[in-house]
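Quick one, tokens below:
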């Protein structure tokens, strides 16, 4: 992509009302634009990152055996009356009436709708288990939208729903999502820690929030340091096998958010040296709730011995748009973002220090073609801006690699390469630059 044709409206001033780094940087780097309280337009650069995050979430859901679909954003109030949540949900729900005075709402979540879809199509225990998910915009009229995309009113969520014949099968679905979540966040460079969460009236231990530690996180969290160092399950993990040992490993140590925290237990269970008391961002939440919706909404299947059995359900959310904020919080410096390659808007920035100079243009064109031919995504700064402005811009948008071509270097047949993560600079032969970057990017994109 040529920068001269791109739309990258950077802000010179630091936005005054943006309190945390990720919010400031997303505005400054032209990734989002606020259109209302907690409502954002996704500008081209931010949109590319959103899509990358969405794709990683999708790949890991698919790997775990969940099936993608898409439900509408607008739902009928009727559905929510069936579950009894229409009145209970409160002011966070955006309620709408259509021209025929029918009560509608902008979905804050989809338990009711998926239950309705499921009951229309599944009749027998033989059709179970099922896991269905979608990645869709939600609206919650949050009392205090803040921190940019971290707590928006309109936000993109991945929500999965599991349907099983009994509780032990339900636990297996829960375990699949547990492992899928660990892998999903790890692929974005995030260390997530599953923490016990409120289970509501049905009790049990099957509710975890996945927390990324960050000073700017909204929740106070407490955990055993051993969880921070725990290895992420590998790509070849068998989702149809027994995942319980992995879950046991991650749940054997103390980890709780504010609401669930018990200081006495914390001190009893964790050595002083391993006690982490920090702040965190909730990037995902998994929850098994049994027949809470299937019973009132009559989502039943014929059981093995006949009779109608309400299915056991769970729901599993990922804050897709919130993740951009969480990743920037983890990867930035004073100059800007430092994207991990897996979610970077482009893998490399190609900086032509003298656009219009034949030798520079020609060298850049060759490098550009070679890189894109290798599958490397390149943002090519072919503008006439001053070098200082070009460097600052590249640092701000934070692509993993920068390749700088200027007349002085070209005289010696050299290109300069900068790795954004640690600022390391090196020179290499112009002819070797593309191959070197392509190899580095490929290495960073591979994961297990
Ligand atoms: P929170 O406690 O942060 O309000 P929640 O428990 O209401 O979140 P869930 O219903 O569990 O959220 O939604 C699943 C995921 O969606 C959350 O883990 C979070 O990552 C994301 N999410 C929830 N609310 C918002 C929001 N207002 N803006 C952005 N992401 C959100
Ligand atoms: Mg939650």
């Amino acid at each position: 992509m040529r920068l001269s044709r791109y739309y990258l409206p950077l802000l010179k001033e630091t936005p005054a009302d943006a309190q945390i780094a990720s919010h400031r940087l997303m505005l400054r780097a032209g990734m989002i634009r606020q259109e209302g309280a907690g409502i954002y337009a996704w500008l081209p650069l931010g949109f590319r990152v959103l899509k990358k995050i969405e794709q990683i979430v999708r790949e890991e859901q698919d790997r775990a055996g969940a099936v993608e679909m898409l439900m509408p954003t607008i739902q009928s109030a009727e559905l929510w009356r069936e579950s009894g949540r229409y009145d209970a949900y409160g002011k966070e729900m955006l309620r709408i009436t259509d021209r025929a005075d029918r009560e509608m709402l902008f979905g804050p979540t989809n338990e009711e709708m998926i239950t309705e879809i499921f009951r229309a199509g599944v009749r027998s225990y033989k059709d179970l288990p099922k896991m269905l998910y979608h990645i869709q915009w939600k609206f919650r009229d949050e009392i205090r939208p803040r921190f940019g995309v971290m707590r928006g009113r309109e936000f993109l969520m991945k929500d999965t729903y599991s349907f099983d014949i009994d509780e032990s099968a339900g636990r297996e679905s829960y375990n699949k999502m547990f492992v899928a979540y660990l892998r999903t966040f790890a692929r974005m460079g995030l260390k997530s820690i599953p923490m016990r969460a409120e289970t509501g009236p049905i009790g049990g231990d099957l509710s975890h929030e996945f927390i990324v530690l960050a000073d700017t996180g909204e929740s106070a969290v407490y955990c055993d340091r051993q969880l921070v160092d725990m290895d992420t399950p590998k790509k070849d993990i068998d989702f149809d096998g027994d995942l319980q040992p992995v879950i046991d490993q991650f749940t054997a140590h103390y980890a709780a958010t504010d609401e669930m925290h018990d200081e006495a237990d914390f001190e009893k269970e964790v050595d002083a040296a391993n006690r982490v008391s920090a702040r965190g961002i909730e990037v995902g939440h998994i929850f098994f709730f049994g027949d809470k919706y299937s019973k009132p909404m009559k989502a039943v299947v014929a059981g093995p011995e006949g009779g109608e059995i309400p299915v056991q359900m769970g729901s599993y959310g990922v804050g897709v748009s919130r993740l951009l904020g969480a990743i920037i919080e983890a990867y930035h410096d004073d100059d800007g973002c430092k994207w991990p390659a897996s979610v970077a808007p482009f893998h490399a920035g190609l900086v032509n220090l003298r656009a219009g100079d034949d030798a520079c243009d020609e060298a850049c064109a060759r490098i550009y073609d070679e890189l894109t031919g290798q599958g490397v995504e390149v943002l090519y700064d072919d503008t006439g801006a001053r070098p200082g402005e070009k460097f600052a811009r590249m640092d701000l948008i934070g692509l993993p690699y920068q390749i700088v071509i200027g007349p002085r270097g070209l005289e010696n047949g050299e290109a300069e390469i900068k790795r954004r993560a640690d600022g390391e600079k090196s020179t290499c032969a112009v002819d070797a630059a593309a191959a070197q970057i392509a190899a580095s990017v490929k290495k960073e994109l591979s994961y297990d």
